[in-house]
Amino acid sequence: MNEITEQTEATGWWHRLRSGLKRTSSSIGGAITDLVAKRRLDDATIDELEEILIRADLGLATAARIADAIRDGRYDKAVTADDVKAILATEVEKVLTPVAKPLALDGAKPAVVLVVGVNGSGKTTTIGKLAAKYRRDGRKVVLAAGDTFRAAAIDQLKIWGARTGAEVVAREPGADAAGLAFDAFSAGRAGGADVVLVDTAGRLQNKAGLMSELEKIVRVLKKVDDAAPHAVLLVLDATVGQNALSQVEEFAKTAGVTGLAMTKLDGTARGGILVAIAEKFGLPVHFIGVGEGVEDLEPFQPRDFARAIAGLDA
Q1: Phi and psi for 250 in degrees, rounded to 5?
Q2: Helix (H, G, I), strand (E, B) or coil at 79
Q3: pTM score, two decimals?
Q4: Rounded distance, CA 244 to CA 251, Å?
Q5: 185-230, pLDDT tens digit by residue?
Q6: Pair 169, 194: CB distance under 8 Å
Q7: Secondary structure percentages of the chain, helix, strand, coil, to 5
Q8: Are 234 and 248 in contact (CB under 8 A)?
Q9: Ranges of each domain in the chain
Q10: Separation of alpha carbons 14 and 128, rounded Å
């Protein structure tokens, strides 16, 4: 890929990200503008700013730190909305930079990525988008249709397989998911695959039976390779807001989550929840999604996200 193409794709992604986060940035930015217009930065204003940030799901600790940064050197002075947004972006970037890490798949062949999450989070679509990316990179990919509870999920993964040229291992609806994951890993190893992406049934984090099945899938994969799964990717739906925190906690206990992908940031004003998650758990954030297209899932870039959420230019 030449430099001009890379720059064009980067610019295109920035515009999609900025547009996707418009509801979040408008919610935060509009409230900030209304608050600081024609007001000095007194205690009441700072408290209200902190409340705005908390309501945007940025988390208590981050909201307090941003409020302190805004107060520093500006107390009892007039500030502009752009001043506040710039500080917001800087502080959010500080929180997100340590967790922005690529999904590394170079240590095993095939690398097995177990994809988990609740119903409707976008797991199967995320798997399809990842398959497309890896195939473009020249990697051989196997998709395991492990959401055996839903015939539609199996069919959806078969469509992605046909679209991307990835092999799909699937069984009839109701088949044993752990056995299917085992077969897919074995097929990937025998066929020289680079990556095996394992779909799983959407399960609520508070349903013990379904979570125990997830534990079984992990145990069975380890029968093929003690290090498997080599990554456990938790897909989170940004529209659920604070509920995402409990999802991270429970899936981390059950499946040993190693990293996150956050989807549907374009459908919510609660995109700040990613900041709260980063602050609380420190788990790597590998990907974010702002739409349905293959190009709408990209590796996480903290500066871009911070500036987009604050409504600032790149």
Answers
A1: -75, -40
A2: coil
A3: 0.91
A4: 11
A5: 999 999 999 999 999 988 665 566 677 888 899 999 999 899 999 9
A6: no
A7: 55, 15, 30
A8: yes
A9: 3-99, 111-301
A10: 22
| DSSP state for residue 59 in the 8-state scheme | -
Q: Please, is 64 exposed, middle or buried when counting C-beta atoms within 10 Å of its C-beta (0-12, 13-18, 19+)?
A: middle
Tell me 56's DSSP state.
T
Rounded (5°) CA angle 20-26-27: 110
CATH number 1.20.120.140 is the correct assignment for the domain at 3-99: yes
At the top level of CATH, which class does the domain 111-301 belong to?
alpha beta
- The two tokens of residue 226 are 């003690």
φ, ψ at 176 (rounded to 5°): -70, 120
**pLDDT at residue 5 tops 60:** no
3-state SS class at 99:
helix
The rounded Cα 61 to chain-centroid distance in angstroms is 21
DSSP 3-state of 267: helix
* DSSP class of 38: T
The structure tokens listed for 4 are: 């001009």
Of 36, 32, 33, 42, the closest CA to residue 76 belongs to 42
